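Recap from last week: sequence in, structure out.
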Amino acid sequence: MNKSDRRAERYQAESRRAKKKWNRICIMVFLGFLLLFGVIGLLIFLRPTRSAEEKRNLTSFPQLMASGIWDGSFFDGISKWYADTYPTRESMISAGNSLENIWGVRTAAIYNGNAAAATAGAGENAADGSADSTGSGTGESPTGTESVLASSAASSDSSDSGNLMDSGGGAIQMTPEVAGTIYVADGSGFELFYYNAEQTTHFAEMLNSVRDRLNDSVQLYAMPVPDAFGIMLSEDVQASLDAGSEKEAEKALFDQTGAGVHAVKLYDLLRSHNNEYIYFRTDHHWTQLGAYYAYCQFCKEKGIKAHSLDEYTKKDFGEFLGTFYTASNQAAELKKNADTLYAWVPLSTNDMKYTGTDGQTYDWKIIMDADDYDVGGKYSCFAAGDEPYAVIDNPKISDGSTCVVVKDSYADCFVPFLTDHYDKVYIMDYRYYNGDLTSFANSQKSCDVIILTSIVFAQSADRANMIEALFPDSSSQ
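Predicted structure tokens:
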């Protein structure tokens, strides 16, 4: 063996030793991480009970029962609990989503929102449970608390209704309004809109029917609210996604309503402001700024003067990650473009009362301090979120003027602006309230009825039927 061959052999031997040493180090590091994560997984006291980003309560430890041990469900429950409540789970999910973006630049993506949001559980439209009720009060109800809560049949619409859960004192936590197909582009989420002419006609017929059942002295206002898809995206992009036109839907709806239905048309108005922050990027709702422009349009239709936005006190409640973020499997591009939740406090009063599903009436705030709310639950700072029934009594007006708002969650940030124009504002969520609003509205000295719902939900026959059921034909009673 010559000198050159000996050098090559030594080099190869040293390389093998170095490789073995490196392999041992990698194995030790890997085992160290396994041990570390195993220890973290055993730290029971660090396990979370709620996911702020997914807006849901996490899986609880299963109850020990002989039947569960026998059929194996107890051990399945432990496995689900362990995985769902792992102390660093949310950070690991976020890291995983961020890692996916390294593989390439995505300018747009489409998510199946219903499938993703189905895992979210309760909590989107309510306080996070940390905001306690400040008292019970004795708030008014037009039909009594025994008829305030809707029957379970009213929750049949899977897109939005869902169950009610007691959050332990305070605002009710509800199954979130889940979005359908979500289009994410430029750091913003949009729910694809599909126009249904038949359902639009059905909704118009409902409005006409309600109008016929109310006295002539009662003014009926219809406010279908466009969403960000119809307002913020160009018509070319909407067409490229084979979606429907919200402008066409609004026109078709009001082409079929009678003269007695005041049409508060919002599409063109909001479109003219689409260079402003009028819709959330990570949530399906409009911002309160968007609701303010709708309030101005309502005042124009009613013939009253709207307050200037700078007359109100503005609140900044910080970062907000909404339903699109949850339903898109926590898309990293949405988190990087997180929303900020701003709110404007009414001029005359910030006090209200709401009746929860327990039949109790609670003192609350029209604009609740949401600084300590979950990052995904801050929208519920507006008018107590989605409660069955609420009332605002304005101490500065005593002329008997009444406003009845029949609504879904889009009205939550709109209602505060009505406060300063009426003696009393009654708020009924048609998904959860059950009462005779025909008799109530007709008995008032002066009454405006506002039916405010997302234009997406106005495509649903179930929604129209829910609203119409609140206005029974008095002639048949």
